[in-house]
Design brief:
about 70 residues; alpha+beta; three-stranded antiparallel β-sheet; about 55% helix; about 15% strand
């Protein structure tokens, strides 16, 4: 169940006539499925960023070790 806006983190209200959610913060208007898709996309992006950050750290520490010898 969608509880907050993936764009701004604002609370959502349900419009029963259009069967869509509306963000009270930024006005994003979409179906539940679209909001869930946006949440998944953001979570995947965050996980990829964490992996890339770790890889950058790992590679930089290897380079520093080689330069010190």
């Amino acid at each position: 169940m969608v509880k907050f806006c993936p764009e701004c983190g604002g609370s959502l209200s349900f419009d029963s006539t259009t069967k869509n959610f509306i963000c009270r913060g930024c006005g994003l208007f979409a179906s539940r499925e679209k909001f869930e898709e946006l949440h998944e996309r953001i979570n995947t992006r965050e996980q990829n960023n964490k992996s890339e950050d770790y890889l950058d750290w790992w590679q930089s520490s290897k380079k520093e070790k080689k330069n010190n010898f």
